[in-house]
Every structure is written in C-alpha cells, then in structure tokens.
C-alpha cells in the first residue's frame, strides 16, 4: 500500500500540482488499463485502511453493544458506498474529455459542496495543527503541566492519528470529486480549479506531510515489532528519523507547489 | 523551589485545582521529601501515598512535570522548577495525590496473574524437578521485576482512550507467565490477551517503556505476545 500511495503522491504533488490535474489529465491517464488498475488497487487499499483506522479510533469511544453495532454498520456502509463510487469512476473513466459537459453537469451545486467540504477539512486541519503547536509551546514554556506530551511516543501517536484522520477525510472528498470525471468533466475541472485557493495551499503541504509521515510511521512500527528485542529501545530514535525523513521528502513538493501554483 | 501540587478532594471540591508552595530545598532531597516538607511546614491537609521510600513498593508513583515517577526516587536536583506534581492518570482520585488503584488491579486480575503449574507431571508429588532452560528465562527475568506502581498504566494514552484496554502492566504480567515453560498452555489467560482489551488494542506508543521506574519494557512483552512468542 505504501508503494501505491507514495507513487500516487509523487505523480500528483511532485510531478504536477493538483490544480493542474483536470479531467483531461485524468482521462489521459485512465485511457490505459494499467493506470486504472493502479488507481483501483490504491482506492481499495487506502479506503479499507482508512475506514478500519477511523473505526478503531471511534470504537474506543463508543460503548455498548448496540452503539458498536451501529458503528460497525456505518463503517461497512461508508466504505461500500465510497468503494462503489470510486470503482464506478475508474471503470467508466476512459470516456472523460476535459471541460466537456456530462450527464451530471446540470448539478452545479456539486463542486460548491466539495469545495465547501475541502475548506471545512482544511479549517479542521489548521485547528488541529494549532492544538499541536499549543501543546508544544506549553511544553517549551512550562507554563502548565505538559501532560503526556513529555513522552516522544505521545507525539508519534497523536501525529499519526491526526494525519490518518485528515488523510481519510481528504480521501473521501477526493473519491467524490474524481467520480465526476466520467459524468461531469466540466464540474470536475471547476472543483480542481478551486484547489488553487490560497487558503488551501497550506492544506496541500499538510496533506503531503500527513501521507508521508503516516506511511513512514507505519513502516517504523512494523519494523520495531519485527525486530522486537533487537530494537527494544529504538522508539525515540526511530521517531526522530521518521520526522527528519518526512521533512526532507516534503520539501521538494513544497517547491513544486510554490512554482506551479497560478 | 516552587511546588505546584494538584489538589482535589472529591467530597468537597467540584474540580481539581493547582496550589503553589515554596519548599525549602536541601541537598539530595527527593520529590517525596518536598511533599513531606509541605505537609510539615505549609499544609497538613495534603494527602499522598508512600511506604518503603526506597523505590521498591511503588506506592509513591505520581506524575512529576508531566512524567510518571516514583516520588521517593526522583531527586529535586534532576527536576526543573516549578515542580508540577499530579496524581497518576486514568485512575480515580481519592484525595490529592492518592488514587484508587482498583481499576488497575481489576485489569491485572483479568490476565490470571498467578503462576499455575497445574500439570501433575510437572508439579505433582512424584514429579521430577522441573527443568528450566536458562535461555528461556533470559527475557522473562528482565520483565519480571514489575512493582505494580501503575506508572505505565498512567502514561499510556490508549488506557485513557479505551477503558477496555488492559494496560501495559497486566499484559507484561501475562507475557511473563505465558513465557514460563513450566506453565501449561495459556488457557483462560489467552482469552484476555487476545480479547478486545488485549494485545491488539495496543498502539505501540511506547510511553510505558519511558515511564517504567524499574526499567521494564512492557511494549516488548506485548509485541512478543502479539507475535505468538508464547504459543505452545
């Protein structure tokens, strides 16, 4: 999954900027069966991983068998709906032609709703980031007790969750917007053009950061578990390595973003 | 040195509050000594728990400047001022720095934390002395010294988020017993280890490793249980 995710990220955020990847770009890519297979496998892996992760996070807070059954059902239903939507788009995608109207083009509210969702997600992400910055400032200034933030593992854990939930939120919006490619290419272009809003620029950088960090941190945890006693005290060092490597990998995408934005 | 102590008496307070005390610090004083100074010179109503004062009983585990520690072992020379002292987290406060350890020990009990060599061939009157390979004890002995102070339980964010999670100490105990070659198969303990609150609920945060005052690595025990290292 890491290979598929980082491959997709490289194409969308290192070779191109998202605002320039309209329906024509997606249509060209989906003209070949290999890319469609790539995107479908990515969709299946990312969606199942994301929904399972969010389900695990929510299950910690939801008590009682009835509430948990509702949660389980909602997770399965949500994953099924978005998997079906994405599969439909990938299957029908080769018909896309940039800028031209499709059968759903009359529904002009769709791009506005998707952009609204993206702006809301960006706002939530910025607030979460402010929360993390406040925790860091409190730790540095020692104005009040640092909570569990004095443990490096707490940072790794919190960042992993924030990154995972943020990426899942974006993934769901992304599946919904890509589903417009075959059925309303003009609306898809309008949605993608909205990505160029200056307010969303930090969100794009944070998205890349979140994906890279979440992937590397997952690999880190797998490696630590595989090595068990040979890496018994390597948690802090390996977290530091993940943070540094994430920063190094994100820098080129920031350069691409700043150069490529209109 | 300024001490800020989290005070709370559930019988009369609505919520916890921080109270500051200026402690006359002498060389080699520990955090526990600082609390005694407050008790004797500033506020005789302060409650805290202690017993051995030698880092062996685990009674004086509390949170000092955001990290779990044994107050008797932590020298003030190694603590940044102001010293924030709080009770252990994820446990109900009885008063001030004294917490009710019942939830901790209930979860501990859930893993059947007793040595049960029920196989008569191993422990019966006619049984030959059990042969224990030294290499099988290598890791078990390292993980055996838990003093049940609750520091790892308090430091674990998963315990705070997921009340079903048994916690690092209980699962470490489960590993120590399950890895004991003299014990029969895990039996009932396996259900707890693999259940909703068992090893698969751990997110490998690692706070327990950093918090343990006696140097145990509960996360390693959890990882080994998860990998089936104790399957027989």
Structure overview:
The complex is a heterodimer of chains A (262) and B (232). With 262 residues, chain A is mainly α. Chain A has one domain (2-98, 106-260). Helix content of chain A is 78%, strand content 0%. Chain A has helices at 2-15, 23-29, 33-61, 65-92, 109-141, 152-178, 180-183, 185-194, 201-227, 235-260. In chain A, helix 1 runs antiparallel to helix 9 (201-227), helix 5 (109-141) packs antiparallel against helix 6 (152-178) and helix 5 runs parallel beside helix 8 (185-194). Chain A is globular and about 55 Å long. Chain B is α+β, with helices and mostly antiparallel strands and 232 residues long. Chain B has 2 domains: 2-94, Beta-grasp domain (Ubiquitin-like (UB roll)); 102-226, Alpha-helical ferredoxin (Fumarate Reductase Iron-sulfur Protein, Chain B, domain 2), CATH 1.10.1060. In chain B, 33% of the residues lie in helices and 12% in strands. Chain B is built from 10 helices and 7 strands. Chain B has helices at residues 31-41, 102-110, 120-123, 134-143, 151-155, 157-161, 168-178, 188-194, 207-211, 218-226, and strands spanning 2-7, 17-22, 61-64, 67-70, 83-86, 93-95, 98-99. In chain B, the strands form 2 sheets. A 5-stranded mixed sheet of chain B has the order 2-1-5-3-4. In chain B, a hairpin with a 2-residue loop joins strand 3 (61-64) and strand 4. Chain B is elongated, with a radius of gyration of 20 Å. The model of chain B has no long low-confidence stretch (mean pLDDT 90). At the A-B interface, helix 6 and helix 9 of A face helix 6, helix 9 and helix 10 of B.
